[in-house]
Amino acid sequence: MEENDQTPPSEEMQSLTVTPSSSSNPTTAQLLSLEERFQLVRSVGEECIQEEELRNLLEKKPLPICYDGFEPSGRMHIAQGVMKTINVNKLTKAGCKVKIWIADWFAQLNNKMGGDLKKIKAVGEYLIEIWKAVGMDIDGDKVEFLWSSDEINSRAHEYWPLVMDIARRNKLPRILRCVQIMGRSEQDELTAAQIFYPCMQCADIFFLKADICQLGMDQRKVNVLAREYCDDIKRKNKPIILSHHMLPGLQQGQEKMSKSDPSSSIFMEDEEVEVRTKIKKAYCPPQIVEGNPCMEYIKHIVFPWFNEFKVERNPQNGGEKIYKSFEELVSDYESGELHPGDLKPALTKALNTILQPVRDHFSKDPKAKDLLKRVKGYRVTR
């Protein structure tokens, strides 16, 4: 084929341009100061690349677009359900629009649900039902759920040239370093589809006109690839990377939750007794905070949800105490003032309170009930 020096396809999608505008109807975000909005958005991420770019974006663009994506790959654990809801609600409060990419084609590429697209789509519908039930701020158009198959098919002329350009500009070793985003390693025996996957996920960022990539720390490498691609095409405004914390599994040494190991995490529709059993068996060494999954749950789920942590004890064990900060809790736990035998029941009660509306929804709503039954019957595949 004849070569010619074409403008990179992504240049049509200058989504990251920052242009001010005015509005006559003040929103919650407009009532917050720039610093308040910045701190709210920044609190979502364990890491931010780069903070000054984020501040500039919030100052100059009235409706920044944040993107997050999920493979529909099985039942939803509490990090994907509750932590994501907490983060999305912070972003919408700060005046952002959130695009949630239901990555059905990506799940098929990665052999989730055995590559059965019909099952994958059912899991995607189940994910949306959970986010609605747990309290994600989806009123109006602040949050948009987008199916990758539908969006790519409808704008294929934009998407595939972009994917091809990203693939053309990167060597295979650079792409292989990104396979962590799929829960794979460079040493795994990968299919050609799984090698193509990072180029597609990188393209998603520009295709969705995202200003902020709000994904987990495990997705960091492909988000950095997107920033490097901006350098390659001499694009000034790069996507800001806001990587959230990854909750560990409940057992000792589990760096992250696993859908294939039910004991490693709390699922969003777990019954009260299941939550109680899992927390009771969870790793929770006395006086040790580092590497303690129960403390992680309290820090990243309970405190952001309730702004406090309530412990109920017998008077001889110290009586009831309400912690207003995680630091106060850490102090008591490290000193031995608070024992795992008292912390675990309090954590169980808090989690069950958060999850009860989800249980109610899946027991009373016919569509949700049917989806859950089907998803529970699917075999999780890698």
Topology, please?
Blueprint: H1 28-31, H2 34-42, E1 47-49, H3 51-60, E2 65-70, H4 78-93, E3 97-102, H5 104-109, H6 117-134, E4 143-147, H7 148-154, H8 156-168, H9 172-176, H10 192-207, E5 212-213, H11 220-232, E6 240-243, H12 272-281, H13 293-306, E7 309-311, E8 321-323, H14 326-335, H15 340-364, H16 366-377
Helix pairs in contact: 2-3, 4-13, 6-15, 6-16, 7-8, 8-10, 10-11, 12-15, 13-15, 15-16
Description of the structure:
This protein has 382 residues and is an alpha/beta fold. 49% of the residues lie in helices and 8% in strands. It has 16 helices and eight strands. Helix 6 crosses helix 15 (340-364) and helix 7 crosses helix 8. It is globular and about 70 Å long. The chain starts with 27 loop residues before the first helix and ends in a 5-residue tail after the last helix.
The overall strand count is 8
Strand order of the largest sheet: 1-6-5-2-3-4
What's the helical proportion of residues?
Answer: 40-55%
Q: Approximately what portion of the residues adopt beta-strand conformation? A: 5-15%
Enzyme class: ligase
Protein name: tyrosine--tRNA ligase
GO molecular function: ATP binding; tyrosine-tRNA ligase activity
Biased composition (Polar residues): 1-14
